[in-house]
Amino acid sequence: MYAFTYERPTSEADALRLAQAGARPLAGGQTLLASMKLRLAAPEQIVDLGAVPELKGIRRDGDALVIGAMTRHCDVAESAEARAAIPALAALAGGIGDKQVRARGTIGGSVANNDPAADYPAALLALGATVHTTARAIAADDFFQGLFATALEEGELITAVRFPIAAKAAYVKFAQPASLFALIGVFVAQTAQGVRVAVTGGGNGVFRHQAMEKALDARFAPEAIAGVPTEEAGMSSDLHASSAYRAHLVGVMAQRAVARALA
After folding, report:
1. The dihedral of CA 229, 230, 233, 237: what is its sign?
2. What gap in Å lies between CA 263 and CA 259, rounded to an integer?
3. pLDDT in tens, 196-218
4. Tens digit of each residue's pLDDT (9 = 90 or more) over 61-114
5. Coil, helix or strand for 202?
6. Residue limits of the FAD-binding PCMH-type domain (predicted)?
7. Domain total of the chain
8. Taking the CB of residue 84, how many other CB atoms lie within 10 A of it?
Protein backbone atom coordinates (compact mmCIF):
# COMPACT_ATOMS: atom_id res chain seq x y z
CA MET A 1 0.00 0.00 0.00
CA TYR A 2 0.98 3.67 0.13
CA ALA A 3 0.08 6.77 2.16
CA PHE A 4 -3.38 8.24 1.66
CA THR A 5 -5.93 10.22 3.67
CA TYR A 6 -8.95 8.33 4.99
CA GLU A 7 -12.23 10.08 5.82
CA ARG A 8 -15.35 8.51 7.31
CA PRO A 9 -18.19 11.07 7.34
CA THR A 10 -21.48 10.45 9.10
CA SER A 11 -23.75 12.50 6.85
CA GLU A 12 -24.54 12.51 3.15
CA ALA A 13 -23.72 16.22 2.97
CA ASP A 14 -20.21 15.72 4.33
CA ALA A 15 -19.63 12.70 2.08
CA LEU A 16 -20.71 14.70 -0.97
CA ARG A 17 -18.48 17.63 -0.01
CA LEU A 18 -15.44 15.35 0.21
CA ALA A 19 -16.29 13.57 -3.06
CA GLN A 20 -16.71 16.86 -4.88
CA ALA A 21 -13.32 17.95 -3.54
CA GLY A 22 -11.74 14.92 -5.20
CA ALA A 23 -11.87 12.15 -2.60
CA ARG A 24 -12.41 8.64 -4.02
CA PRO A 25 -15.64 7.05 -2.70
CA LEU A 26 -15.27 3.74 -0.87
CA ALA A 27 -18.37 1.54 -0.66
CA GLY A 28 -17.74 -2.14 0.14
CA GLY A 29 -14.17 -1.94 -1.09
CA GLN A 30 -14.32 -5.22 -2.99
CA THR A 31 -12.78 -3.66 -6.10
CA LEU A 32 -11.11 -0.46 -4.96
CA LEU A 33 -8.95 -1.95 -2.21
CA ALA A 34 -7.75 -4.77 -4.44
CA SER A 35 -6.92 -2.24 -7.15
CA MET A 36 -4.96 -0.13 -4.68
CA LYS A 37 -2.95 -3.15 -3.50
CA LEU A 38 -2.01 -3.86 -7.12
CA ARG A 39 -1.25 -0.15 -7.70
CA LEU A 40 -3.90 -0.03 -10.41
CA ALA A 41 -5.51 2.81 -8.47
CA ALA A 42 -3.77 5.34 -6.26
CA PRO A 43 -6.24 7.84 -4.78
CA GLU A 44 -4.72 10.41 -2.44
CA GLN A 45 -7.89 10.63 -0.36
CA ILE A 46 -10.66 8.13 0.33
CA VAL A 47 -14.14 8.88 1.63
CA ASP A 48 -15.69 5.83 3.30
CA LEU A 49 -19.49 5.89 2.89
CA GLY A 50 -20.12 3.14 5.43
CA ALA A 51 -21.14 5.42 8.29
CA VAL A 52 -23.73 7.44 6.35
CA PRO A 53 -27.15 6.19 7.55
CA GLU A 54 -29.12 7.91 4.75
CA LEU A 55 -27.48 5.61 2.22
CA LYS A 56 -28.68 2.34 3.78
CA GLY A 57 -32.00 0.52 3.91
CA ILE A 58 -34.67 -1.29 1.92
CA ARG A 59 -38.25 -0.05 1.66
CA ARG A 60 -41.38 -0.56 -0.40
CA ASP A 61 -42.56 2.65 -2.04
CA GLY A 62 -45.84 2.08 -3.86
CA ASP A 63 -45.17 -0.13 -6.87
CA ALA A 64 -41.39 -0.01 -6.40
CA LEU A 65 -38.65 -1.30 -4.13
CA VAL A 66 -36.07 1.29 -3.09
CA ILE A 67 -32.64 0.12 -1.91
CA GLY A 68 -30.04 2.46 -0.42
CA ALA A 69 -26.68 2.52 -2.14
CA MET A 70 -24.76 1.27 0.91
CA THR A 71 -27.06 -1.69 1.51
CA ARG A 72 -25.01 -4.87 1.53
CA HIS A 73 -25.68 -7.84 -0.73
CA CYS A 74 -26.49 -10.06 2.26
CA ASP A 75 -29.07 -7.54 3.49
CA VAL A 76 -30.86 -7.61 0.13
CA ALA A 77 -30.73 -11.40 0.05
CA GLU A 78 -32.17 -11.73 3.55
CA SER A 79 -34.70 -8.88 3.35
CA ALA A 80 -38.32 -9.96 3.80
CA GLU A 81 -39.34 -6.78 1.95
CA ALA A 82 -37.17 -7.63 -1.06
CA ARG A 83 -38.21 -11.30 -1.09
CA ALA A 84 -41.87 -10.31 -1.09
CA ALA A 85 -41.62 -7.55 -3.70
CA ILE A 86 -39.01 -8.91 -6.14
CA PRO A 87 -37.93 -12.45 -5.18
CA ALA A 88 -35.61 -12.63 -8.19
CA LEU A 89 -33.63 -9.65 -6.93
CA ALA A 90 -33.19 -11.15 -3.47
CA ALA A 91 -32.10 -14.44 -5.04
CA LEU A 92 -29.60 -12.64 -7.27
CA ALA A 93 -28.05 -10.91 -4.24
CA GLY A 94 -27.76 -14.24 -2.47
CA GLY A 95 -25.73 -15.63 -5.35
CA ILE A 96 -23.10 -12.88 -5.50
CA GLY A 97 -19.61 -14.11 -4.62
CA ASP A 98 -19.19 -15.86 -1.27
CA LYS A 99 -20.33 -14.98 2.26
CA GLN A 100 -17.42 -12.61 2.81
CA VAL A 101 -18.17 -10.71 -0.40
CA ARG A 102 -21.89 -10.52 0.39
CA ALA A 103 -21.12 -9.25 3.90
CA ARG A 104 -19.00 -6.35 2.56
CA GLY A 105 -20.13 -5.57 -0.96
CA THR A 106 -22.89 -3.03 -1.58
CA ILE A 107 -25.39 -2.50 -4.36
CA GLY A 108 -24.19 1.05 -4.96
CA GLY A 109 -20.57 -0.02 -5.22
CA SER A 110 -21.41 -2.79 -7.67
CA VAL A 111 -23.55 -0.52 -9.84
CA ALA A 112 -20.98 2.29 -9.86
CA ASN A 113 -18.14 -0.11 -10.71
CA ASN A 114 -20.13 -1.73 -13.56
CA ASP A 115 -18.00 -4.83 -13.91
CA PRO A 116 -18.93 -6.50 -17.23
CA ALA A 117 -19.71 -9.77 -15.42
CA ALA A 118 -21.47 -8.34 -12.36
CA ASP A 119 -24.98 -9.49 -11.45
CA TYR A 120 -26.73 -6.31 -10.29
CA PRO A 121 -26.47 -4.41 -13.62
CA ALA A 122 -28.58 -7.14 -15.24
CA ALA A 123 -31.27 -6.66 -12.61
CA LEU A 124 -31.30 -2.89 -13.05
CA LEU A 125 -31.53 -3.10 -16.82
CA ALA A 126 -34.16 -5.86 -16.93
CA LEU A 127 -36.40 -4.30 -14.28
CA GLY A 128 -36.10 -0.80 -15.74
CA ALA A 129 -34.62 0.58 -12.52
CA THR A 130 -33.66 4.16 -11.81
CA VAL A 131 -30.34 5.12 -10.23
CA HIS A 132 -30.73 8.05 -7.84
CA THR A 133 -27.67 10.17 -7.16
CA THR A 134 -26.83 13.31 -5.23
CA ALA A 135 -27.56 15.27 -8.40
CA ARG A 136 -30.27 13.50 -10.43
CA ALA A 137 -32.18 10.35 -11.36
CA ILE A 138 -30.75 8.21 -14.18
CA ALA A 139 -32.64 5.45 -15.99
CA ALA A 140 -30.74 2.16 -16.12
CA ASP A 141 -30.89 2.24 -19.93
CA ASP A 142 -28.81 5.45 -19.81
CA PHE A 143 -26.63 4.61 -16.82
CA PHE A 144 -24.51 1.70 -18.08
CA GLN A 145 -22.17 2.85 -20.83
CA GLY A 146 -19.72 0.01 -21.45
CA LEU A 147 -16.69 -1.56 -19.80
CA PHE A 148 -16.50 -0.16 -16.24
CA ALA A 149 -18.15 3.01 -17.58
CA THR A 150 -21.30 4.71 -16.28
CA ALA A 151 -23.11 8.02 -16.58
CA LEU A 152 -21.78 9.12 -13.17
CA GLU A 153 -19.81 12.34 -13.16
CA GLU A 154 -16.90 13.27 -10.90
CA GLY A 155 -18.10 13.98 -7.37
CA GLU A 156 -21.52 12.40 -7.97
CA LEU A 157 -22.60 9.72 -5.51
CA ILE A 158 -25.27 7.05 -5.88
CA THR A 159 -27.80 7.36 -3.05
CA ALA A 160 -30.34 4.65 -3.94
CA VAL A 161 -31.72 2.41 -6.67
CA ARG A 162 -35.44 2.27 -7.36
CA PHE A 163 -36.74 -1.00 -8.83
CA PRO A 164 -40.26 -1.17 -10.31
CA ILE A 165 -41.97 -4.37 -9.18
CA ALA A 166 -42.39 -6.75 -12.11
CA ALA A 167 -45.26 -9.15 -12.68
CA LYS A 168 -42.76 -11.98 -13.20
CA ALA A 169 -38.97 -12.02 -13.02
CA ALA A 170 -36.04 -14.40 -12.68
CA TYR A 171 -32.26 -14.40 -12.92
CA VAL A 172 -30.14 -17.37 -13.94
CA LYS A 173 -26.38 -17.38 -14.38
CA PHE A 174 -23.68 -19.81 -15.40
CA ALA A 175 -21.03 -18.91 -12.85
CA GLN A 176 -17.26 -19.07 -13.10
CA PRO A 177 -16.53 -21.56 -10.28
CA ALA A 178 -13.77 -19.61 -8.49
CA SER A 179 -15.13 -16.05 -8.53
CA LEU A 180 -18.83 -16.83 -9.01
CA PHE A 181 -18.98 -13.96 -11.49
CA ALA A 182 -21.27 -14.71 -14.42
CA LEU A 183 -19.77 -16.29 -17.50
CA ILE A 184 -23.28 -15.50 -18.69
CA GLY A 185 -26.17 -14.25 -16.59
CA VAL A 186 -29.65 -13.48 -17.90
CA PHE A 187 -32.33 -11.53 -16.04
CA VAL A 188 -35.83 -11.73 -17.53
CA ALA A 189 -38.66 -9.49 -16.34
CA GLN A 190 -42.27 -9.11 -17.40
CA THR A 191 -42.90 -5.42 -16.71
CA ALA A 192 -45.73 -2.98 -17.31
CA GLN A 193 -43.85 -1.74 -20.39
CA GLY A 194 -43.29 -5.23 -21.77
CA VAL A 195 -40.72 -7.98 -21.36
CA ARG A 196 -37.12 -6.93 -20.76
CA VAL A 197 -34.14 -9.28 -21.07
CA ALA A 198 -30.71 -8.23 -19.79
CA VAL A 199 -27.48 -10.16 -20.31
CA THR A 200 -24.30 -9.84 -18.25
CA GLY A 201 -20.91 -11.53 -18.60
CA GLY A 202 -21.03 -11.60 -22.38
CA GLY A 203 -18.90 -8.70 -23.51
CA ASN A 204 -17.96 -5.14 -22.59
CA GLY A 205 -20.97 -4.67 -20.37
CA VAL A 206 -24.56 -5.52 -19.64
CA PHE A 207 -26.96 -5.27 -22.58
CA ARG A 208 -30.59 -5.87 -23.50
CA HIS A 209 -31.48 -8.71 -25.86
CA GLN A 210 -34.18 -7.07 -27.96
CA ALA A 211 -34.85 -10.06 -30.20
CA MET A 212 -35.69 -12.17 -27.16
CA GLU A 213 -37.80 -9.38 -25.72
CA LYS A 214 -39.89 -9.25 -28.89
CA ALA A 215 -40.36 -13.01 -28.91
CA LEU A 216 -41.33 -13.12 -25.24
CA ASP A 217 -43.77 -10.24 -25.64
CA ALA A 218 -45.63 -12.38 -28.12
CA ARG A 219 -45.49 -15.47 -25.92
CA PHE A 220 -43.90 -15.63 -22.48
CA ALA A 221 -42.59 -19.19 -22.55
CA PRO A 222 -39.13 -20.81 -22.83
CA GLU A 223 -40.04 -22.27 -26.21
CA ALA A 224 -40.64 -18.79 -27.63
CA ILE A 225 -36.91 -18.00 -27.53
CA ALA A 226 -35.52 -21.47 -28.25
CA GLY A 227 -34.55 -20.43 -31.77
CA VAL A 228 -33.61 -16.80 -31.11
CA PRO A 229 -29.88 -16.41 -31.86
CA THR A 230 -27.30 -14.31 -30.02
CA GLU A 231 -24.59 -12.74 -32.12
CA GLU A 232 -21.17 -14.21 -31.33
CA ALA A 233 -19.36 -11.12 -32.63
CA GLY A 234 -19.95 -9.06 -29.50
CA MET A 235 -19.12 -11.80 -27.02
CA SER A 236 -15.92 -12.07 -24.98
CA SER A 237 -13.50 -14.95 -25.49
CA ASP A 238 -11.02 -15.92 -22.78
CA LEU A 239 -9.61 -18.92 -20.91
CA HIS A 240 -12.98 -19.49 -19.23
CA ALA A 241 -15.20 -19.60 -22.32
CA SER A 242 -15.08 -18.86 -26.02
CA SER A 243 -17.31 -16.28 -27.67
CA ALA A 244 -19.30 -19.07 -29.34
CA TYR A 245 -19.88 -20.81 -26.03
CA ARG A 246 -21.00 -17.59 -24.36
CA ALA A 247 -23.42 -16.89 -27.22
CA HIS A 248 -24.84 -20.38 -26.78
CA LEU A 249 -25.14 -19.90 -23.02
CA VAL A 250 -27.27 -16.77 -23.48
CA GLY A 251 -30.02 -18.85 -25.05
CA VAL A 252 -29.78 -21.60 -22.46
CA MET A 253 -29.77 -19.24 -19.46
CA ALA A 254 -32.59 -17.13 -20.92
CA GLN A 255 -34.85 -20.16 -21.36
CA ARG A 256 -34.10 -21.28 -17.81
CA ALA A 257 -34.86 -17.80 -16.51
CA VAL A 258 -38.23 -17.72 -18.24
CA ALA A 259 -39.05 -21.17 -16.88
CA ARG A 260 -38.10 -20.04 -13.38
CA ALA A 261 -40.19 -16.88 -13.69
CA LEU A 262 -43.21 -19.02 -14.59
CA ALA A 263 -42.65 -21.53 -11.77
Report:
1. negative
2. 6
3. 999 999 989 999 999 999 999 99
4. 999 999 999 999 999 999 999 999 999 999 999 999 999 999 999 999 999 999
5. coil
6. 1-168
7. 2
8. 12
